[in-house]
Amino acid sequence: MKVFVISMENEAQCVIDNLQDVSEAREFGRRVVRGTLNGEPTAVYISGIGKANAAAATQMAIQSGADTIINLGVAGGLDPEIKVTDIYEVDSAVQYDFDLSAVNGTMVGTLDERETPYIPLFCPGKLPSMLIGTGDRFNDSDNDNDLLLNVLTCQLRDMECAAVAQICEIAGVKCVAFKCVTDVRGQGPMTGQYVDNLKKCLAKIKAAVPDLFAAV
Question: 215 to each of 7, 18, 176, how far by Cα in Å?
Answer without folding.
Answer: 21, 16, 10
